[in-house]
């Protein structure tokens, strides 16, 4: 970070010594360069951090998936051995030892991975076994821990870690034993069934796993004894050590761990039936190798981008500042107070559009300064009068009287639900109408206002019409001049759907079109005659026609006074079909 700040300071000194610091060219060049440096540093550090963490997560996730698959394979194999043991236990009988011997013979014949299957009585004597051999009398079965554990924990499977089988003379295979004590139904005597599995099978399940170039997995039992390790012989002679205590204390998952100065990702997964733990070891320095190449690429791209931006900023700032300096020299003449000056400068073709518009705009500004003061006073007065007319048109005594009369009528008819609806709608209507004196309110509030108004009118007219409101979510957050929909909707009710014999429909839509917000009020009334439609927004007097007009004209004038002549109301009407009123205002956030 300190190096980056020194680099920025060096760039600043170079630009300051080359250009005048108070010129627009210097400001543009310095700004482009500074912003680019900060952006490149931020993006580079962020990308490096994100990709590094992603690589570590992917490595941990990949290791976890591999170990989970090893776990599944190991559990499936051990389950098969448990089924073999269970099958033998279910067929134990003193009266039918020949049948039991046949079962053992078939089992070892089919399963080549089973070294020995033997059944012992409670004294440690062999009842039956397969394959048969010369029993080693020096090997006391009754003194073995696994044998005593099986006698004490009847029907519990006991997996014995890898060991050398010493049951027969001359046979010393490396096996994993599955022992289980069970009751013989005939005399209620306890026998122990032992299934010795060839350790090479489980070794192959673990040995074929690869965790990077140096990574590996190993397996320990619940007591911390190693069941499998790819360097098992080195472990036994003490030339290599694993932190067994760390693995025993941790739950299943991935952990970072330092051992002998190396950063490791340790992934632990427990084998369901045995309480053995599969531990995966992957080395973080293999991931760091990939990060080094990534950091080199990021630095190269950053340096190239910085050089390009510096060159581009110098070129662009020179092109921008040259015509602006010319314009500045001419505009200084206006400082003396001579507003009759007309700026006309010679500008290069490539920059003519921007600066020429600026000079023309300045000329227009000077000429209009005197007129604007008078116009502002006149427009403010007109705006206040228009606002007053709008409020009077919105909240007229007849509407309030009729609404309250409807509430009284519904109360007398015990329509308390209707009374509640009317009161809530009326309260919402007046709350938004007041709007704490604000001229601009959110479009969402204007929608709620007209919804309250339509709810009241729908009840008053005994559901003579229905209404739908469809507003784009994007438009709801923008601002609008308040109380522009209600006069339009009022006109649609009184001069549109009220006259229909069938049910009237009023649709209100709000959408965003380019840089404008469009409100549409659509009714299926009788429509407006063309001659009336032509003059409805241009009436000079304040009297109402057969199709209203005062409310429409008032809203139109308010919009144009507030936003300009580009905005306002458009009316489209077809006799016997209906009328559509479009209201356009600029987007205001």
How would you portray this structure in words?
This protein has a domain at 395-586: 2-Layer Sandwich (Heat Shock Protein 90). The mean pLDDT is 78. The longest helix is centred in the N-terminal third of the chain and has 67 residues, at 24-90. It has helices spanning 2-18, 24-90, 97-110, 145-152, 199-207, 232-236, 244-249, 284-331, 352-394, 397-412, 416-434, 443-460, 473-476, 486-494, 530-535, 550-563, and strands spanning 114-120, 126-130, 158-164, 174-184, 189-198, 216-220, 226-228, 253-259, 262-270, 277-283, 440-442, 465-471, 479-481, 504-513, 516-523, 568-574, 578-586. A hairpin with a 5-residue loop joins strand 6 (216-220) and strand 7. The protein is an alpha+beta fold and 589 residues long. It is elongated. The two termini are 38 Å apart. Strands 2-1-5-4-3 form a five-stranded antiparallel sheet. It has a five-stranded antiparallel sheet with strand order 7-6-10-9-8.
Can you give keywords for this protein?
single chain; 16 helices; 589 residues; Heat Shock Protein 90; 5-stranded antiparallel β-sheet
Structural class by SSE content: alpha+beta
CATH class of the domain at 395-586: Alpha Beta
Fourth-tier CATH superfamily name of the domain at 395-586 = Histidine kinase-like ATPase, C-terminal domain
Main pleated sheet:
5 strands, antiparallel
- State the helical fraction: 40-55%
CATH second-level architecture of the domain at 395-586? 2-Layer Sandwich
- Strand order of the main beta sheet, please? 2-1-5-4-3
Gross morphology is elongated
